Amino acid sequence: MTAANGSAPSIQAAAAKTVLSAHGKSFYWASFFLGAKSAAQAAQLYQFCRYVDDLADGSLPDRAEQLRLINSQLAGHKSDQPSEETAQFIELMQQCQISSQAAIGLVDGMLQDQQPVQLNHPAELLRYCHAVAGTVGLMMSRVLGCHNPKAQPFALDLGIAMQLTNIARDVLEDAQMGRRYLPASWVSLTPAEIAAASPVSRQPVAEAVAKTLELAEHYYRSARLGIQLLPLRSRLAIAVALRVYRHIGVRLKGRDYAWWRGRVYVPAWQKLLLTLVSLRVLLPSAVPEHNRSLHADLQGLVGVEVE
Fold it and tell me: 47 phi and psi, to 5 degrees?
């Protein structure tokens, strides 16, 4: 995979950075505060996550089979030649000592989306968020050179918080794809009813969006505490990513959770202000024990401490 003259890694890094800048603008902004090597590896991780996400959301008839094949390759089983994206990620796993269980958990989450999605309870929502984003938090901590086991639950919490924000932001888009991640105990409308965005559906869905963002706040607060466990160079980048991503929910709340009006974005000037506020993370502070109640519904999943 690596050219003798070093050109292949640089080409791979440039391609990954292009994917990040196009599809992960909040993370792309935060990556400027990492060192060159960590920024490149973080972009490669994002590129793989985007690859499997696009595969899961695509129109290929055999996409579930392809996702299962990727999981087999991540587990080290001999099979067909992996795609270029999978092969590059396996190399990244080896370089950064990323757990194959975390990577497989991510793809398992994408496999869940191959069936009609209508979650029933908040616990199901949290377990889904763990699969598709908590696992990414675990992998990202390794990319950033963090091997402190105390950091693991906080990394999970950041991924979960960000995914809850995603779900709150993308209610309409998800419904148009036949998915309702908002638990039925919060709103019992079908994806088709939400996708119609009729006046009668707007308020009950908005109330469920508000509950989703309230739940996210618990995980953001926990994740913010754990940032101190990261290597110093990585702390600012992750603090910036946390604050910018959280601000998506703040802006959504600011327009009264009007989910039917389309996606919310954080403008560049607010990203700059949030970056300045994030500088305080460079001051040392004690890290309390992780609030294990946040993982009460996640028992048995990768990275979750057994009660």
Answer: -60, -45
Grouping H, G, I as helix, E, B as strand and the rest as coil, residue 181 is coil
User: In this structure, what token pair is assigned to residue 150?
Assistant: 């105390």
CA angle 220, 57, 155 (to 5 degrees): 20
Rounded-to-10 torsion of CA 114, 212, 125, 240: 80
- The helix, strand and coil proportions of the chain, stated in percent and rounded to the nearest 5, come to 70, 0, 30
Residues ≥6 apart with Cβ < 8 Å to 188: none
Dihedral (Cα; 231, 246, 177, 120), 10-degree rounding: 100
Cα dihedral 62, 64, 70, 76 sign = negative
Separation CA 212–CA 193 (nearest Å): 19
The DSSP element (H or E) to which 126 belongs, if any, is helix 122-129
Q: What is the pLDDT of residues 237-288, one digit of tens each?
A: 999 999 999 999 999 999 999 999 989 999 999 999 999 999 999 998 999 9
Report how far residue 136's alpha carbon sits from residue 107's, in angstroms, rounded to the nearest whole number. Answer: 11
Q: Find where tokens 């398992």 sit.
A: 108
Question: Whole-structure pTM over 0.70, yes or no?
Answer: yes
Please compute the mean of the pLDDT values over residues 209-215 and round it to a whole number.
Answer: 98
Q: What is the pLDDT of residue 14?
A: 78
